[in-house]
Specification:
heterodimer, A: about 350 residues, mainly alpha, 2 strands, about 0% strand, B: about 500 residues, alpha/beta, 6-stranded mixed beta sheet, about 25% strand, globular
Chain lengths: ~350, ~500
């Protein structure tokens, strides 16, 4: 139908530029931040704006990117997953636990063929995600608390598996994907790109993706529309756990070792990437596109600070301040949008 | 006479548009102290928009805005509040988990020198204020435990006694029982004598004529008439509102209406001895294809809970639901939907996505019918466009965010989402609440059309007119029990009220 195709465009035109920009604030602000940071570091350091360094940045954000895919689903539903780093860690440790280690590694592990090790590790993170899902939907524990407990449980399983030791070997496939490269492009960047693309396609073009946005936009209305809200919420928790698990396995291969507390910084980084990108903490707005911009903002910031002469302790503070600014913009953008929609 | 006094509030040439759609066009409006000013108009005529401008909710508009003769611009609702303007919104906005006293004093609780809340004083003063309003409740009880009608009265009381010089009431009477309406009117008259200016918006034209001094009529964003209440009639106002012969549209239902012989078409849903905590006790009935079953009762009689049980949102403590001969326990609303049950709840907010375009609102419940894995946006828009045209939703733009539509049009969207693949049983809660005559008629026609297509329809309402205008058979629900069935016999508003 011709009229139905042209009508929305006309509606948006009529709305005028200023309100349109205001409603798009959450998409525009992170992008401007990214451009600003890039220009700033390019001017401040000659070694920043190089092809080599772009490759560095891409590699540095890959693990965060893989974890952030699943977290984007969760935050779109107006929930949170604090167990992502814990699940990444335990999955990375598990895949090493089921792999034959060098004789000097003193862990009482269970060596299995590579494929079996990978499947068991994936099953483990999916199972932990399922526990999150059941706690949230069946028992009714708020995701913030449920995943806080899961973070501790995952750390506990990790500790029991490695017992303070460090494992080094993971299955060959994981080693290749985590630390190998093809035609000069690291596999881990390719995996992150594919997962981000996949997440985007699911959110934008599938029925499930629409449900995620609708549940996030107005959970009560989703329920009164006859959607199975609990199933959708449960699914995003499992998706998040599996993405974290994949990020954890590749991360272990990328770092070359599997040990306790290896992924601790990834919790904040992943949440920051999603939120800095502009996905609404109140659910229903944003998406993988936003997460990608957020990843680059964090990546450029982390990498750029290494290129300029700055007290390394100050960097931590700067990251905190940037995150706070992003949160302010996030909440502000939500308010502006609600005003425009009134 | 208020006519002689200087206006406390004056608006000149107010124009306001949403997304290129003009909600108000060059409206003049003046309000004098000691005046009750009634506003009438169809849904989307611009009444609520104008009031939201006055209350500082909408801050972007063109035209002059004068308070006490001084040109003013509110930047927020807080500014309006500071200027002495109080508003009771159409939808209940109370804090159900706080006490009655806290709700009455919301935002300005009495405190002592240390800044601590003076509970005893607050409870006493709240109790006194409410008693003046004829409400007798324990000020320390939790507000959410009270019936909805009482909650609404308390919210109105809060604004009335906040010391506001200008009080705006948007549809205050739709959730109130007749004696409660009387109490409200008595209080409004008393405030008028004290010099408060009151704006009263309602679809109940009799109410407007009874209580207001002046009536202003809106149509399509314009002010079409302003007249003294004593000098006009209901028919004349309706005609001004809708611009076509109005008398025939409004049926008063005071005379007996003959209900038809019950149909013997197949039973779609049988409820058997449904019970739920304190709300419902052994409720049994049958809903048949091609029949509209009306369930009437006062606010808090258990209607809301009953509708939620039918749609799988609440689980009954006892009793069974039998859908087309098969007993069902709905684990979720999704299960109810799959079994062919649909619900339109009384609150639009509860079933619509304000930040999403109209077409996504319409397609959400049928996505699994039109697509398996991938979405088909073109088809969604086409289906939505058809519904928008059939139900005459304005503006007819399926890509517009739902929040930009007027209340009545949103209500039609809420219906539209179930109509593309009609369910077997459609449960409607207060389908015409807060609607003007024209939109009510549209809804009545939609429901009749669905009945003709063989749907079983259950209409639950606290307004006798709604049930009488729609139902073929009427059940009366009183304190959680069905007390009377009207079928194949004469029924009227009086008889219904008497049975409840």
């Amino acid at each position: 139908m011709a009229s139905s195709e042209t009508a929305p465009a006309a509606g948006q035109r009529a709305r005028g530029l200023a309100p349109f920009l205001r409603s798009q604030m959450r998409n525009i602000a992170p992008f401007l931040t990214l451009i600003f940071l890039s220009v700033f570091f390019a001017l401040a350091s000659p070694s920043f704006a190089t092809i080599d360094n772009l490759g560095n940045i891409l590699t540095q954000v890959s693990v965060t990117g893989i974890i952030a895919v699943g977290l984007t689903f969760v935050i779109l539903c107006a929930e949170i997953d604090l167990s992502i780093a814990g699940i990444a860690n335990v999955t990375g440790i598990a895949v090493a636990y089921f792999t034959l280690q060098e004789s000097y590694v003193n862990i009482p592990n269970i060596p299995l063929p590579g494929a079996a090790a990978i499947l068991l590790a994936i099953a483990l993170c999916a199972a932990l995600g399922l526990v999150n899902a059941l706690g949230l939907t069946v028992i009714g524990i708020p995701s913030f608390i449920m995943t806080l407990a899961m973070m501790q449980i995952a750390a506990g399983i990790s500790a029991l598996l490695v017992r303070g030791q460090i494992a080094y070997k993971v299955p060959d496939l994981i080693t290749t994907l985590g630390s190998g490269s093809i035609g000069g492009v690291p596999w881990i960047v390719i995996v992150a790109a594919i997962m981000l693309l996949g997440g985007h396609l699911v959110l934008t073009y599938t029925r499930f993706g629409r449900y995620v946005y609708m549940v996030g936009g107005n959970r009560e209305a989703a329920e009164y529309s006859g959607l199975n809200v609990k199933l959708i919420l449960g699914s995003v928790m499992v998706i998040s756990a599996v993405c974290s698990g994949i990020g954890g396995m590749l991360g272990v291969a990328h770092f070359g070792s599997a040990q306790q507390n290896e992924f601790d910084t990834y919790l904040l980084d992943s949440i920051a990437a999603v939120v800095v990108g502009g996905t609404s903490l109140f659910g229903g707005r944003g998406g993988i596109g936003n997460t990608i911009v957020g990843l680059f903002v964090l990546g450029v910031l982390n990498n750029g600070l290494d290129h300029v002469n700055i007290d390394s302790f100050l960097k931590i503070l700067i990251r905190g301040v940037i995150l706070l600014l992003a949160l302010i913009i996030n909440v502000y953008a939500q308010r502006l949008r609600e005003k425009t929609a009134e | 006479m208020p006519e002689g006094r200087q206006p406390i509030l004056e608006l000149q040439g107010i124009t306001k548009s949403f997304g290129g759609v003009e909600a108000l066009r060059g409206v003049d409006f003046a309000l004098r102290p000691g005046e009750i000013h009634g506003l009438v108009g169809e849904n989307g005529a611009g009444k609520s928009t104008l009031m939201k401008i006055i209350a500082g909710v909408h801050t972007e508009f063109s035209g002059r805005f004068l308070i006490d003769g001084q040109e003013t611009r509110f930047r927020s609702a807080r500014d309006a509040h500071a200027a002495g303007i109080g508003m009771v919104h159409q939808e209940l906005s109370v804090a159900p988990d706080l006490t009655v006293a806290e709700n009455v004093f919301l935002g300005n609780q009495p405190t002592n020198a240390l800044g601590l809340v003076q509970w005893r004083r607050m409870a006493r003063e709240a109790g006194e204020q409410l008693a003046r309003f004829g409400i007798d409740v324990d000020p320390m009880s939790r507000l959410g435990d009270l019936p909805i009608g009482l909650q609404q009265l308390i919210e109105i009381a809060r604004v009335l006694f906040s010391g506001a010089r200008i009080v705006i009431l948007d549809e205050p009477t739709s959730a109130l029982s007749p004696p409660e309406v009387e109490r409200l009117f008595a209080t409004l008259r008393r405030l008028r004598e004290q010099g408060t200016a009151i704006v009263f918006i309602s679809h109940f034209i009799e109410d407007i004529l009874r209580v207001s001094d002046t009536v202003t009529v809106f149509r399509n964003g314009r002010k079409v008439a302003e007249t003294a209440s004593a000098a006009t009639t209901k028919g004349a106002l309706i005609e001004a509102m809708i611009g076509r012969g109005g008398e025939a549209l409004e049926h008063s239902y005071t005379d007996d209406l003959m209900l038809p012989r019950p149909t013997d078409s197949p039973v779609i849903l049988k409820a058997d001895q449904l019970s739920l905590a304190r709300s419902l006790k052994g409720v049994s009935f049958e809903a048949r294809a091609g029949e509209v079953l009306g369930i009437y009762g006062f606010m808090g009689c258990g209607q809301q809970e009953l509708s939620r049980i039918l749609f799988g949102k609440l689980k009954p403590d006892a009793g069974t639901l039998i859908v087309e001969g098969t007993p069902k326990t709905f684990a979720s609303t999704a299960a109810a939907r799959r079994a062919g049950v649909a619900l339109v709840p009384e609150s639009r907010r509860a079933m619509l996505f304000h930040q999403e375009p109209v077409y996504k609102n319409i397609s959400i419940s049928i996505l699994d019918r039109i697509s398996s894995l991938l979405l088909k946006p073109a088809q969604e828009r086409e289906i939505a466009q058809r519904q928008v045209e059939q139900l005459q939703i304005r503006p007819p733009v399926v890509g517009l965010d739902l929040g930009m539509l007027s209340g009545g049009n949103q209500q039609k969207v809420a219906l539209a989402k179930w109509l593309t693949y009609p369910p077997k049983l459609l449960v409607l809660c207060e389908p015409t609440r807060g609607m003007d005559v024209g939109a009510k008629n549209d809804v009545i026609n939609i429901v009749r059309d669905l009945r003709a297509r063989g749907l079983a329809i259950i209409v639950l309402s606290t307004e006798p007119e709604t049930v009488l205008s729609l139902a073929d058979r009427i059940l009366v629900l009183k304190r959680g029990t069905l007390v009377r069935e009207f079928k194949n016999e004469p029924v009227s508003k009086d008889r219904l009220l008497e049975a409840a």
